[in-house]
Write a structure and sequence with these properties.
about 950 residues; 48 strands; alpha+beta; eight-stranded antiparallel β-barrel; OB fold (Dihydrolipoamide Acetyltransferase, E2P); D-amino Acid Aminotransferase, Chain A, domain 1; seven-stranded mixed β-sheet; globular
Length: about 950
């Protein structure tokens, strides 16, 4: 298991490339002379004839884009283009990209192209350079794997991630001198091994994907479109609009054809444009929801704005209903220029930094100084269009219309694109680029005012709004005030939650102080004011101003830890500010809207912990938790104990907690004090499940261990088990699978268990799988290593080898690989060490990769999120020798086996002391 649902900020590692000067960007041409980056491109073209753009060297935008254009020139090829330093770096790929990591495709480095070229789909006239039909075959954004991509390109190798409509995941470009015999700048483009990789025999991209991602047209249909020509005497935006089927309309004019007919979108209805609406709000969650039903967008840090356009008249309205049109005159003009007579658009006004991140303080400063020209309106929803109310239509249909409507020439109104699936990876990228987080939306859901579970937000840092109820005197050289006193609404009262004294500029100190002095009052407006010395210097104010604050965590007494001021929120009313807590997402369609003022499900981030030892609750016998009547198992209160987690066999959350109580004594030696990776299925295994490594907001009974992640250059928290209460705490959080590391929490870098995973072709008999396990035991015995056996809860077996902690993970992996290679060499027709599915037919895949840092395997006695609630169970070796059929142990029937056991099959495992020796390595030729 290698992917993760990241729930920890990744702000310390910038994967966006550092800025480079565009004034003197120069590169060697084929003749060796210095040229500006676009000179070669322009030199080869006659822009009086070709429809291609001449282009300028653009400023970098908020994301690095890529585009792949299928190009029928003298020969069909695919042009792979990546934005960097204001231009598109370009490679011609004769056979097109492949999802097969073994399929390395020649990529000829060609001249840079202008950014505008990334929108071109049409025909280049015959006789011009590159004459022929051009299709937009794929497009999206990309991010370098690490470091400065310019340096990596200069060194001849670049690893990167693609987030496109078709191509996703990890890719690599490697220079290969002389490859292809051309003598030119030859590279190889290929897919790295990840979840997006697929063998070519299963999926050939150039055969399966034959239409445009922009228009859905074939090459023949594009070639037949006589209007799809880019004329050099027309403006860039007119050419882009023409080649994409959108013709710019004059200000206030009736709309031209803008994609689909809004009246034809299911759920849309005719009606008058509303004059005001309640905006839809997202619920805070601890993880990015997974599944094809969700679209994932960047979470912005700006002002939420509704734009009402009625012919020439535009109103820009804040979230709390204030008319802010005068604040954003440039955006008003851009909205007025949209090619629709009437439109209602939802979005956020932001300031985009050069590195692509947002700055709320910069937004406030610009607005206060009256300098709105640097603002951008990022739009993400379309609620009304030319007589059609779209709020009842599915989000996917609304966004398709919005994308067509907002192909704006000046770029001030920008469409917010999204990613389908891979939300956890998208979240990691967002945090890496210092963005706020991700907003995930149900693609099939209508627009509903108020807070909804159909929109979910996952934040890179803890951040929310607080009401300012006072301030303290300044100290030292600071002027105006020392700190702001903060509160939230709770149970009809204002509760004091601490103070914030960092994050202010001199200008913000003066501005906020001037506002606060006008709101002075004598008595505290909070129900729990500070007492004694802490209250001496506080000046209380009317609770009207709202501050946005980041912080690391809530303390046990409900205060903020390490808060920092971000800015004032003039767009959010103080009477709506509560302590925001994460909610669980449900598959049910009848519980989608959360009432205003709700703080989320009580069972998420449950404060009830418990003793970390087995104690008297070893049996898992439940008791009641007092007033809330929630049953308690091993000291942990279970919310929704009757929630069915395995509907096919009727197993509930309480059943799972009691099962772990019954196996705790056998299970604990193999899971306690080890870092864990988890599979969470809050609604049961048939609902949405996600894989999680880093944890937040878990019950106190669940232990944590901080582990340094070299790739991210930061330390992150993993879960660990300290006793039965920890396991029940995991059950409370919807954890269905527990996967421990092969090392312990006190030294995670030194493995003490090796595991060999036997994954057979489904057609192979169980006796063959068991015989393979016995062969591994025999070969391990020859090396001098004892081993133990367990089922996987699936169709395979695990062979476990305990070792002394005297090797690194790299050494453990190398030893395991050499051992598996020896096994495969004994019977290559039956065994394989290849991860490729095409190599596994009729064979047993022996997986040694479990013995790498961070890789895991299902815990002994751990349940699986599969039909029937199977469990992974330790076996005697004699059972492998005699069994005719695969053991079928489940949460429901394992008690029968335990009652019949004469002893624990693994009782000697934890007491065994053995090491990987030099002699063993020599026997494996290491």
């Amino acid at each position: 298991m290698s992917s993760s649902a990241v729930s920890k900020p990744r702000r310390q590692t910038q994967r966006h490339p550092p800025p480079a000067s565009r004034t003197n960007q120069r590169r060697k041409s084929e003749s060796g002379r210095d040229v500006t980056v676009l000179e070669e491109y322009r030199r080869k073209r006659d822009f009086a004839v070709t429809p291609e753009p001449a282009g300028g060297e653009s400023e970098p935008r908020e994301a690095l884009t890529f585009v792949i254009q299928k190009h029928a020139a003298s020969r069909i090829h695919w042009d792979f283009r990546m934005e960097l330093d204001g231009v598109l770096l370009s490679w011609a790929v004769p056979k097109g990209p492949s999802l097969d990591p073994a399929d390395k495709r020649l990529a000829m480095h060609v001249e840079d192209h202008p950014i505008e070229y990334g929108s071109f789909e049409g025909v280049i006239p015959e006789g011009e350079y590159g004459g022929g039909t051009v299709m937009l075959w794929d497009r999206g954004t990309w991010a370098p794997d690490h470091g400065d991509p310019r340096e990596h390109l200069a060194q001849g190798h670049l690893k990167f991630d693609l987030f496109g409509g078709r191509l996703r995941g990890r890719w690599m470009l490697v220079r290969s001198k002389g490859y292809g015999g051309s003598g030119k700048d030859s590279w190889l483009l290929f897919k790295e091994r990840d979840q997006e990789a697929r063998p070519k025999t299963e999926f050939d991209t150039t055969v399966e994907w034959t239409t445009s991602v922009a228009t859905g047209r074939t090459m023949e249909e594009i070639a037949a479109d006589v209007q799809a020509v880019w004329h050099s005497d027309e403006r860039v935006e007119e050419n882009v609009a023409k080649t994409s089927g959108l013709h710019p309309a004059p200000r206030g004019a009736a709309p031209a054809a803008v994609g689909p007919d809004p009246a034809s979108v299911p759920g849309a209805k005719r009606g008058k444009m509303p004059t005001s609406i309640d905006v839809q709000l997202a619920s805070l969650v601890t993880h990015v929801p997974e599944g094809d039903r969700w679209l994932h967008e960047i979470k912005f840090d700006g002002y939420r704005i509704l734009a009402f356009k009625d012919k020439d008249r535009v109103r820009l309205v804040s979230r709390n209903g204030k008319d802010w049109t005068d604040r954003f005159p440039d955006i008003e003009r851009s909205v007025a220029a949209l090619s629709a007579a009437q439109a209602l658009v939802d979005g956020e006004v932001v300031v985009v930094n050069p590195d692509g991140s947002n700055s709320f303080q910069a937004l406030q400063n610009l607005a206060r100084r009256g300098e709105p020209s640097e603002l951008t309106y990022m739009v993400f929803d379309l609620l009304y269009l030319d007589g059609i109310d779209l709020r009842g239509a599915a989000l996917e249909g609304r966004k398709e219309l919005l994308q067509a409507l907002t192909r704006s020439p000046d770029g001030r109104v920008r469409y917010t694109d999204h990613i389908e699936g891979r939300g956890d990876v998208f979240f990691e990228q967002a945090c890496t680029h210092s963005l706020e987080g991700v907003v995930s939306k149900r693609r099939d859901a209508p627009y509903r005012g108020g807070r909804s579970r159909e929109w979910a937000k996952t934040k890179c840092l803890q951040e929310q709004e607080f009401i300012i109820v006072g301030y303290t005197d300044p100290g030292g050289t600071r002027s105006a005030f020392g700190a702001l006193v903060l509160a939230v609404h709770e149970n009809g009262e204002l509760r004091h939650v601490g103070r914030v004294g960092t994050g202010f500029s001199d200008a913000s100190l003066a501005d906020i102080h001037a506002r606060l002095t006008r709101l002075s009052r004598d008595d505290p407006p909070v129900s729990n004011p500070p007492k004694g010395a802490q209250a001496a210097s506080i000046h209380w104010v009317e609770p009207q101003l709202v501050a946005e604050v980041t912080f690391t965590e809530w303390t046990d007494d409900g205060s903020l830890r390490h808060p920092a001021f971000r800015g004032l929120r003039e767009d959010k009313p103080a009477d709506e500010v509560i302590a925001e807590e994460p909610v669980e997402l449900s598959d049910s369609s009848d519980a989608t809207t959360i009432p205003r003022g709700a703080v989320g499900d009580s069972h998420v981030g449950d404060p009830h912990g418990g003793d970390s030892s087995l104690g008297d609750d070893r049996s898992g016998k439940p008791r009641r938790a007092g007033k809330d009547e929630r049953p308690v198992v091993a000291g942990v209160a279970l919310s929704n104990p009757d929630r069915v987690l395995w509907p096919d066999v009727g197993i509930t959350k309480m059943d799972l907690a009691l099962y772990y109580g019954s196996v705790a004594e056998l299970m604990m030696p193999h899971v306690v004090n080890r870092p864990l990776s988890l599979v969470r299925c809050p609604s049961g295994y048939t609902g949405e499940c996600f894989y999680q490594k880093h944890i937040q907001h878990f019950p106190r009974a669940v232990g944590t261990v901080d582990i340094y992640e070299p790739e991210d250059a930061e330390t992150v928290p993993y879960a660990k088990i300290t006793g039965l209460s920890s396991i029940v705490g995991l059950v409370q959080m919807g954890v269905l699978e527990i996967h421990p590391w092969g090392s312990r929490a006190d030294d995670p870098e030194s493995p003490d268990r090796l595991i060999f995973d036997l994954d057979p072709d489904p057609e192979l008999a169980w006796k063959t799988v068991a015989a393979t396990a016995l062969l591994l035991r025999s070969e391990l015995d020859r090396l001098g290593l004892r081993s133990w056996l367990k089922t996987t809860g699936g169709k395979g077996l695990h062979v476990m080898v305990p070792v002394q902690r005297r090797q690194t993970w790299a050494e453990a992996r190398d030893f395991s690989r050499a051992f598996v290679d020896r096994i495969v060499s004994l019977e290559p027709r039956l065994f394989t060490a290849s991860m490729r599915k095409s190599d596994r037919g009729g064979k047993i895949f022996i997986d040694y990769v479990r013995n790498t840092r961070g890789a895991t395997a299902i815990a002994a006695y751990g349940a699986r999120a599969r039909p029937g609630a199977p469990v992974s169970v330790p076996l005697y070796w004699e059972e492998a020798e005699s069994a005719e059929h695969r053991p079928d142990f489940t949460v429901l029937n394992l008690a029968v086996r335990l009652d019949s056991l004469r002893a624990d099959p693994w009782k000697d495992l934890v007491r065994t002391r053995q090491s990987i020796t030099k002699k063993m390595r020599s026997q494996l030729r290491l």
